[in-house]
Amino acid sequence: MTELRLAHLYPEYLNIYADRGNIAVLATRAAWRGLELAVEAVSVGDELRRDAYDLLYVGGGQDREQALIAPDLAAKGEAIREAVAAGTAALAVCGGYQLLGRFYRDRSGAEQPGAGLFPLHTVAGDRRMIGDCLIESDLVAGERRTVAGFENHAGTTRLDPDARPLGRVLAGFGNDGESGFEGCRLGTAIGTYLHGPLLPRNPWLADWLLERALEHRLGEAPELGELPDDLEREAHLVAAGRARSRGGRF
Ligand code: GLN
Predict the structure, then answer these.
(1) What are the DSSP calls for 17-36, one per residue?
(2) Domain of 60?
(3) Of 94, 153, 184, 216, which residue is the catalytic one?
(4) CATH classification of the domain holding 97
């Protein structure tokens, strides 16, 4: 049985809105294809071996928890950048997404250093951007697919001019409530503000990450078999409907 290795960064600090549910989805969808997902927690003071993982995952968190881990994460920045450059897949949600950029200036004005993977920075404002969110992504070449989730952040993320967003906002705030973009994509790494957890209602995104991880492990991109995602599709439609009912972008 092929084993995929996932490093779960700071699970005891960054895990709000059931973000760890994303790992349960990756593990289950891998198992349904006869694959095993080995999950290893990598936290403060732990070494991150740059060639040991096929997938990196980091969830969201409050400013206080982000401040507790930011210096340690920044020190792991080079290992994270090299791992992703070598094809390791990555999913970073909200607070974790912010800290994979250059820095996050939180509501106290303190600047928390980031890992410097994503070409962006984040500054917390007075407005909290909260609610159901729906975006359209062209992550799968030649296709436009929607991603539905829930956002709750004070951080306003500015992408560098040549940075690639994860998608275009159809309903909700996204990165900054202005640009009309949400998230960031850099090769095999994805950053997003969308909680929920994200992957149960967006199974295609889970499969995209698993394919990248398999490509890293096996050196070739196998086609993952289709799964009967009726429940997942229903969950997506319900979440998308809630976001649309909010009435467009803010
Ligand atoms: N603390 C960050 C912010 O408020 C991230 C919040 C989160 O992860 N939901 O923007």
Answers:
(1) TTTTHHHHHHHHHHHTTT-E
(2) 3-246
(3) 94
(4) 3.40.50.880
